[in-house]
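Page 47, continued from p. 46.
Same chain as before, 220 aa.
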Amino acid sequence: MIELRNIEKFYQQGPSKSFVLRRVDATIKEGEFVSIMGPSGAGKSTLLYVIGMHDSDWTGEYFLMGQPVHKMNRKERNEVYKQNFGFVFQSYHLLDSLTVAENIEMPLTYRNIKKSEREAIVADVLDRFQMVGKKDLFPNQLSGGQQQLVGIARAMVASPKVILADEPTGNLHTSQGKEIMEMFKKLNDAGTTIIQVTHSDANAAYGNRVIELRDGWIEK
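Result:
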């Protein structure tokens, strides 16, 4: 489903290059649940952002379902992203001017779904996340943990083929974090491909494979 070949990312510092990712080769099959692990600064989040098309400043080859992402322009990548991915950001990335319900609904507006259907789907998700009473609040009225839950709900609402999650339980209580991981596991059992960045061995145990990164290299 996802094939990365010789992916590299670096920052130019005068005459030298500071590499964040080095010669990354990886294949992720449809329906896998993969955890990207490694020490801080290893390039984990950067790799997730490359896969999720939020970072386009890299070299190498990236194929998604056989399509060459590395040959697509920004508009094409954006369209592919909207149709296939849900992303849980470590720093939430909620839109401050939208309510909880509107933030969650956003991915559905990219699909050909009638407003009445969108509202029904959002209502169901709000209920599942026990956030019905907060649907009309704005992000700045929520705690960090609540914002994280909204971010996770938004990533899942459109039933994407792939969910990318950057430390998805980092701001949640232990019990909330466990509930989210159980939810991811159910989605994965139903066929959703999940790729998470995590420091947690307990979270990684929900998946079926770990990719270890160190200093931008995949450890064999």
